Amino acid sequence: MLIMNDGSHLGLLSGGCMEADLAVHARQVIADGTARAIEYDMRGPDDVLFGLGAGCEGAMRILLEPAGRNTRAAEALAAAGRAVQLGEMTSLMVVHESTQLPLGTYHDSSQLPPELRAAANQTLAQSASRNVAWSTDGARQRAFAQFLAPPPHLLICGAGPDVAPVVVAARNLGWRITVVDHRPAYAESSRFPGAAVFRIDAHMLREAVDLTRCHAALVMSHHLKSDESYLRELAAAGVPDYVGLLGPQVRRARLARELGPLDAALKSRLRGPVGIDIGASTPESIALSIVSQIHAWLAGRV
């Protein structure tokens, strides 16, 4: 949650149970530039927080730290942001209780003691966030090692009019998007804000795009021979593990026949017809069904 000088904010830590009080503490942190941890415990029988029934039935420990220009938090977040936008995994170490280190967020592990450097390495090795606790001269120290994966990279093969809602839905989730098409009138960056757009021949896909850095591919050019070429390229590449194909089952069957033996290399990866069956009929609802299926697959739910 980012709290501004004027009290406005981006993000939420609850359903509004403690944000007003948190803003009061944030003003003090902004004023004196010193990070502090705040605790809220709403597990008591009275269900009352500052005279209001909160209903959260939980406890939270929140670190408030200055994040203005040239602060440790700003530099750590900027460094992490650069890493994930390049498609790299990274981590942040949030020290929220310590007599050894200033409280706050760290990205450069060289600034950390051995216990936290080891935890940062383990976080990256296991691709999972973790709580870290250690003791220094009998005093408890605590931190949170946050794993940050790069945002999913979606490759869309085809740039027809129905691709725009897919790009919008994926961009709203923070995904990186690459759109390719062989038609000059379609392969225009202005049609897909926030996406990388390339005009290429379908059979040149592996040369034009690093498929190893794509998490999912979507084939929806509406041009049968182009879709066949895209699928041949994706089959030969062996990545990504999710390939969605737009169109009815009969079209999927025809493309399977055209691909011949290469179709076997796609069978476990191909979703065709692509999307979750939500009764979609408009470009926007079809985009929702497609992006929902990809999201569920990335989360290991389908």
Description of the molecule:
With 302 residues, the protein is α/β, with parallel strands linked by helices. The protein has 3 domains: 2-64, no CATH class; 72-148, no CATH class; 153-298, 3-Layer(aba) Sandwich (Rossmann fold). The chain is 32% helix and 24% strand. The protein contains 8 helices and 16 strands. The strands form 5 sheets. Strands 13-12-11-14-15-16 form a 6-stranded parallel β-sheet, sandwiched between helices. Strands 8-7-10-9 form a 4-stranded antiparallel β-sheet. A two-stranded antiparallel ribbon has the order 1-2. A hairpin with a 2-residue loop joins strand 9 (130-136) and strand 10. It is elongated. The two termini are 31 Å apart. The relative contact order is 0.08.
How is the topology of this model organized?
Elements: E1 2-3, E2 9-10, H1 19-32, E3 36-41, E4 48-49, E5 52-53, E6 59-64, H2 72-85, E7 90-97, E8 104-106, H3 114-126, E9 130-136, E10 139-148, E11 153-157, H4 163-172, E12 176-181, E13 196-199, H5 205-208, E14 216-219, H6 224-237, E15 243-245, H7 249-259, E16 270-271, H8 283-298
Q: Which stretches are poorly predicted, pLDDT < 50 over at least 5 residues?
A: 47-53
CATH class of the largest domain: Alpha Beta
Order of helices and strands: EEHEEEEHEEHEEEHEEHEHEHEH
Helical/strand content category: alpha/beta
- Quickly give the CATH architecture of the largest domain: 3-Layer(aba) Sandwich
**Mind telling me the CATH superfamily name of the largest domain?**
NAD(P)-binding Rossmann-like Domain
Biggest sheet character: 6 strands, parallel
What percent of residues are in strands? 15-25%
The CATH topology of the largest domain corresponds to: Rossmann fold
- Provide mean pLDDT, rounded: 91
Query: What number of domains?
Result: 3
